[in-house]
Amino acid sequence: MAVEPERLPVFVYGTLRPGQVNHGYHLRGRTVAEEPARLRGAVLYEGPGYPYAVAEPGGEVRGELVSVAPGEYAAVLASLDELEGCGPDGRGEMYVRVGLQVLPERGGAVRAWVYLAADRTARRLRAVGTRVAGGSWPPGPA
């Protein structure tokens, strides 16, 4: 019997952010709250049309902390895992889903699901990838 993942909010930093294409497909109308937040200990790298967050001490990624509507949680997490190429255990070749501390703009710290680059992808990005300046995607004026 599969163990259901903990029901944590999700920290989004790329195409799942409000106003981005995958937010509309996977999150719009299925959340109860979305607020600006930061993830410390990670940096962003450019991907082919989307970013990767890579664990790295001293870095910071900007995004949103998304609280999923209770009746939508299982379907939303399954949808996000599929988008990121992860199995029900949160493991995939490009991304892994991990529970990390996120800092909402309102203060405090919240444990949330974050999709980080999987080990092999992270090693490649550290060696030859292009960092996203300012830790916010899409890049541009703040």
From TrEMBL:
It is an enzyme of class 2 (transferase). Keywords: Acyltransferase, Transferase. Its EC number is 2.3.2.-. Residues 10-137 form the Gamma-glutamylcyclotransferase AIG2-like domain. GO terms for molecular function: acyltransferase activity. The keyword Acyltransferase applies. This is Gamma-glutamylcyclotransferase family protein. It comes from Streptomyces aureoversilis. The lineage of its organism: Bacteria, Bacillati, Actinomycetota, Actinomycetes, Kitasatosporales.
